[in-house]
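Reviewers of the previous submission asked for a worked example of the structure-prediction workflow described in the proposal, so we include one complete record here. The input consisted solely of the amino acid sequence. No template or homolog information was supplied to the procedure at any stage.
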Amino acid sequence: MVLLLVLFLGSFVMIVPFLWMLVTSFDWGARMNITFPPKWWPEEPSIRTYEVAFTNIKMMRYIGNSTLVSAGVIVVSSLSALLSGYALSKIRFKGAPLVLLLALSTMMIPFEMTMLPQYLLFSKLGLIDSYWAFYLPALNYAFGTFLAKAFFDQLPSALREAGIIDGAREFTVFSQIYLPLCTPIIATMVILLFLGVWNEMLWPLLVLKSASKYTIQIGLAMFTYNNGINQQPAIIMAATAVSLVPIVVIYLFLQRYIIESIALTGIKQ
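From that input alone, the workflow returned the following structure tokens.
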């Protein structure tokens, strides 16, 4: 009973800000200021806040840019993690534990320490204001490698041995035998990567110079900076609510695969 009460209170604390955001986004009366304490029903219910948001903010362009960045990072990171995880789990080459340890050790380095060297490197390569500044760092996805290895460890090695005996090459064994079994772990990585890339703020702010290439978070931040949160709060809340829709949709579609992957790999959250 106590545990249920604690979980309920925790859920309540997490949900309340989102409810407040949604209520405010539909309240035309809150377009100039937000009342406190929060009101849980709009004083002037209207969808005009969303109409103004799409008129004043280039929402579709920013969402399209974020989708392009997220899709590229997901493809690069997932493929890199699956290939490395497969190699560490099934090929068992000499020094594999050390390679995994070195890969995981990169997770201990804060992004703020590597941010400046990465920026200088991409600046020298002429990749600033380019989406390649997102795709290339995505090749190193240490956490995904760890997840993939844990998942491949649960799959029988006899599948690989049978494929090799039948004359299949290593990549054929990976792509045609093991990869079709990896739907749960792929879905897990897709959600984790999508959440991270879609909500990323600092790195896009550094490398993107053209307004036409802004991601949704940068676009909202620039609109808020230019207009002020206290000037058009309902409009900003409406735009923020729209930016959350892709995350909610992807999670609802893929959540069952996450549960399955956790069950198979033994990872506890």
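The longest helix spans residues 59-91. We consider this example representative of the routine output the project will generate in years two and three.
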